[in-house]
Amino acid sequence: MNDFIAHLLVLLGAAVPWVELLAVPPAIALGLSPVTVGITAFLSNTAVSFAAITGSARLLAWWERRRGRPIGSGATGQRGRKAFERFGVPGLALQGPFLSGMYFAVLFAVLLGAPRNSVMLWTVVSNALWTVALAVGTIAGVGFLT
Residue 106 and residue 86: Cα distance in Å, rounded? Predict the structure, then answer.
């Protein structure tokens, strides 16, 4: 497969909630550069997260019109609210890719009144940590298996 197409698939995969964690390991395992894969995934996920943060007011209004209830009122929303009350913005951002999807985590944070600048900062920190952890873990795993 062409490297450009493979990186494009990483870019698209990192932009999809819950798939974001699965974008990096296969690309590295298939022989792409861990640095370029990590940068591509990080930029993709961060850009979509920032778009969700900046467009959150419109998105939340759309959700309420569509569902007839505010976001965060269901069972998943209650878990997000508890996580926010216990761990704040850093906790929501760091668990984001793993439990709820990064975009839902940032929307919960904004919905619950967190300052957007704080949410953006912790989104960058979380995405960077997860990307590095996935890349290093994949490199170690591939090295162990070969």
Answer: 16
Q: What Rg do the C-alpha atoms of the chain give, in angstroms? A: 16
Kindly tell me the sign of the dihedral angle through the C-alpha atoms of 47, 48, 53, 55.
positive
Average pLDDT over residues 50-58: 84
- Interatomic CA distance for residues 60 and 115, integer angstroms: 16
Over residues 62-77, the mean pLDDT reads 71
- In 3-state terms, the chain is what percent helix, strand and coil (to 5)? 80, 0, 20
Residue 103, CB half-sphere, CA atoms under 13 Å: how many?
19
- Write out the two tokens for 17: 């909630």
Q: Give the pair of three-digit tokens for residue 82.
A: 């508890």
Rounded to two decimals, what is the model's pTM? 0.80
